[in-house]
Write a structure and sequence with these properties.
Blueprint: E1 7-18, H1 57-69, E2 73-74, E3 77-78, E4 81-84, E5 94-97, E6 104-105, E7 108-113, E8 116-129, E9 133-135, E10 144-146, E11 153-159, H2 166-182, E12 195-205, E13 215-220, H3 223-242, E14 250-255, E15 260-266, E16 276-277, E17 284-285, H4 288-296, H5 302-312, H6 317-324, H7 327-337, H8 343-361, H9 372-383, H10 389-402, H11 408-414, H12 423-436, H13 438-445, H14 452-462, H15 469-480
Parallel strand pairs: 13-14
Antiparallel strand pairs: 1-11, 1-12, 2-6, 3-17, 4-5, 4-16, 6-8, 7-8, 8-11, 9-10, 12-13, 14-15
Bound molecules: adenosine-5'-diphosphate and magnesium ion.
Amino acid sequence: MNIYDTYETIIGLEVHVQLATKSKAFCSDDTTFGADPNTHISVISLGHPGTLPKMNKKQVEFAVRLGLALNCEINPRNTFDRKNYFYADLPKGYQITQDASPICLGGQLEIKVGEEKKTIRLHHIHMEEDAGKLIHDVDPEHSLVDLNRAGVPLLEIVTEPDFRSAEEVDVFMNAMRQLVRYLEVSDGNMEEGSLRCDCNVSVRKKGDIQLNERCEIKNMNSMRYARQAIKFERKRQIDLMEKGERVAQNTLNFDPSTGTTSPLRQKEDAHDYRYFPEPDLPPIVLSEQYIEKIKLEMPPLPNELVDKFSIEFQLPKYDVGLLTEEKETAFFFLEICKKTNNYKAVSNLVINKIKPYCNEVKIGISKFKVSPKSLAEFADLIEDGKVSSSIAYQRLFPALIKEPEKSPEIIAQELSLFQSNDEGFLEKIVNEVLENNPKEVEAYKKGKKNLIGFFMGQVMKSSRGKAEPKSTSTLLRKKLEK
Ligand code: ADP
Ligand code: MG
């Protein structure tokens, strides 16, 4: 047995979510991403003496919303602390965070890895502020500081060490991204750093109960890199243990260009942050009514919609995945499903026609100009066998987009798109097709039964898609097997 297979990987995450508030956590500076350096700053975010922070109500609301969605206990009286350290991107010399009494306690998120469901427990969620950004690649002589991000509100979600593979981490982070977007608390954009995580990694012999020393890989904002970093770290730690050496508790940096981790600082000589209660901010006191109100305003969550679409609507996994990826699509789909029970036909329509169309003309699906009622009617026309799906997609759909106010049924009538199972009409075409293809008829009769597809195609072509498939195939077989 391979020695590596006798170890398991243990991972716990500290996930940072940058909140989609208009202003910063403790002052009114703008938070828009990508502004010119040092234009979204003020005496408060610069940490000038004598200034006072003031809590952003939205940050609290977003924290409670996320906490409720993750089944946390909401801490009705939570407080802020100062985390002291010296760094060029931190003008105040300390970060305002929650250490002793965070806003959300416990909680969990269920993830699905392959076919298996797994629950990841959360330790807590706390509110804090971001630091500024150092820029090392603009000036050859100096490092520059951009403080636009200093004071931007964050939530930090700390999980229990429940992950056993990089794949589970990947699935969890994607679920988290989807969730914060559904809740509209963050844009979840990993490239812009709105969602990032520190990965705490340790290894232990399978069967062992005790956890070993861990390393913390900082600031992963790409899941591809996180996977590489975890894989590298796992091997590095196993190799050390096999040599009988100790894994030192380090904070690590991952270098994508080499695929390796290297120490940023060592825990032993590292930080004493000298946490103490933030004297400039009062405790956050949350009433039951306040929490209840946020609960009532909660939108349906991705996991609930996945269950609804797969169990109640009986849709295949592939459809469910695409329909629930974004809230906008899921809600749009749900609106149509209020007017019809032909869920699969609606799903096909949304996935195969409406989404691609919206992507092409670069609009959100909620801006699609045909009403849910018309789209339900469109799906019914297909499902009731009145218009073939190919004709509906190729001719009715574009016509409907040109005249979004008009009923699909009326358009179908005007363009005479209804498919026919009228015996006389069908028989005439079937006879013609058989007469025009004597060789194929011969071959079919000698046993080449899959030629039925060829005949179907010919009938569809000469009827311009109007022949109803089931009656056509019955009639064809009847004639060919005579
Ligand atoms: P701190 O960073 O303040 O020391 P904790 O020790 O509670 O905080 O843990 C921080 C993160 O490290 C959590 O996400 C936790 O799940 C994870 N973690 C703790 N111990 C281990 C371990 N032995 N292996 C992997 N992850 C761990
Ligand atoms: Mg930590």
